[in-house]
Amino acid sequence: MRTLVIAPHADDEAVSCGGLIARRVKREQGVVRVLSLHGRNYTHEGKVYDQRASDARELEDFRRSAATLGFEGVSETYVEGEPGQVGYYVLLHRIEKELARFQPDELVIPSEHDLNQDHQHLSRVCKIVCRPTNLQYVQRVLEFVGLDGRVRCPMHFVTLTRSELDVKISAINCYARELREPPSPRAAENVIAQARVWGAAAGASYAEAYVTYLARE
Length: 217
Description:
alpha/beta
């Protein structure tokens, strides 16, 4: 299977899709490509970060995550912030180019029900991309939701082994600035707890939950 993940930022592939990527690559011997589109303007907890240094560190973290999970990574640095700062066509053309080049069987996109405006904007763009002419090879489109987002039914569960979940946690740990302490959903113990909850819903030990946007035989 060839899977293309469209990530709003570097770290979203690990936080939201790390288990799916680990399973596709390590258990199913598939190929996963991640396209990360936005840079990040760090102002967390009152700290102001030099943007050029932040971009360089973000790229290095992304490369470490790619090595941990085993995916091919491509990172683009578009403006982060209000959706209008990066128009539909700029992102649309970039994603269409990646689809045509990689020809995936599976496409994984952000959900419109995420609570971050960049994720919502990119979700709308991805759904424009999902026009029939662009889906010659795609058999399934899944929407992922960030850990602090909202998931609606119906859901698609990707069941995980404990080793696959551990690889996901290792990938998340590549992004030290994005880690949080409990009770944040980004705390490692809560990522594991959420995987247990989704696993219980799917009749497995651990799982990630997705929304099926398109599926065809």
